[in-house]
Amino acid sequence: xxxxxxxxxxxxxxxxxxxxxxxxxxxxxxxxxxxxxxxxxxxxxxxxxxxxxxxxxxxxxxxxxxxxxxxxxxxxxxxxxxxxxxxxxxxxxxxxxxxxxxxxxxxxxxxxxxxxxxxxxxxxxxxxxxxxxxxxxxxxxxxxxxxxxxxxxxxxxxxxxxxxxxxxxxxxxxxxxxxxxxxxxxxxxxxxxxxxxxxxxxxxxxxxxxxxxxxxxxxxxxxxxxxxxxxxxxxxxxxxxxxxxxxxxxxxxxxxxxxxxxxxxxxxxxxxxxxxxxxxxxxxxxxxxxxxxxxxxxxxxxxxxxxxxxxxxxxxxxxxxxxxxxxxxxxxxxxxxxxxxxxxxxxxxxxxxxxxxxxxxxxxxxxxxxxxxxxxxxxxxxxxxxxxxxxxxxxxxxxx
Length: 400
Known about the structure:
- By secondary structure, the chain is of the alpha/beta class.
- The protein has helices at residues 12-23, 39-42, 74-87, 171-182, 212-215, 220-234, 250-257, 266-274, 315-318, 353-370, 392-398; strands at 5-8, 28-32, 92-94, 98-104, 107-112, 117-119, 121-124, 131-132, 146-149, 164-167, 188-192, 197-200, 202-203, 206-207, 261-264, 278-281, 283-287, 290-293, 298-300, 303-306, 310-311, 337-339, 342-344.
- α1 (12-23) packs parallel to α10.
């Protein structure tokens, strides 16, 4: 076979796995379903910035430029990933969607949009935010306006003068509501089901995530109490503005449901206090001219933006292999083998994910290198190409 390892997904996990493997003389090709490297990141909104600072968010041996500041933007991150792939000569085949992974006698067989492919090892690196989650009430309604997921939101310009309801009070929902309110939209409302823990990106000019590696090792209840005190000092009580204190601590929420804290800039909190956007109860349905709220009221609007998160989307790919657990997450998330030759890298709910996947990639490459090489050709069908670095066409398509 042309490659000993096929890697699904060209985000930081996929690229770092390929780079670490190639550094050990093991052939690996990255398959990306989109038209450009890191397509999932290309689709995020224009104003997105990291929630964790650059020192916790870089791949091993590849720090972010200091001139980018503490929190890289989406476009800076795309440029970073492109440069990383080029520096490590990572071969990426774009426009190849993998639809199913199966075992065969030589290792693994992949069904792809370009035909079948085989390899001894497969690494799934598509990430936790692959498939947009849409509430049932948002599908097939008689709403006369526009309903879109946050993955399809780019900037506030198309919504000038239009009344908007943003559903979901995580980092994305709060930031999108703030952008719309400051960017010329009409009345902007934020619909909240579960009040979030709120944390500012910076405190006194320093990133608030600096102690995070230590906090992740402490008992969740202790970290929850520490965060509660920090939130009282930095953010204050927002009950009068529709956001009462969260009922669950941030670390407990992170461990239990993969979410716990909304990280925002202080300008978002200031806009809420000023009434630039308002907070409403959760949306329970749509009507022809707007939304229905949990308190029984109807609110008119012409746009509903769903900041309702993502799922892994792994079911169609590997669900038949009995390797998935709660919330569609892999049961083995450390990068170790779920089945002989099958690994998942980058599937974690935690801050500083890019740094984590880089460390996982290094460990995975060491394990695969220690286990020997395949050395047999693939049996028929499409074969991954020889080494190919991203081209100028790829870079143009990435918006990076």
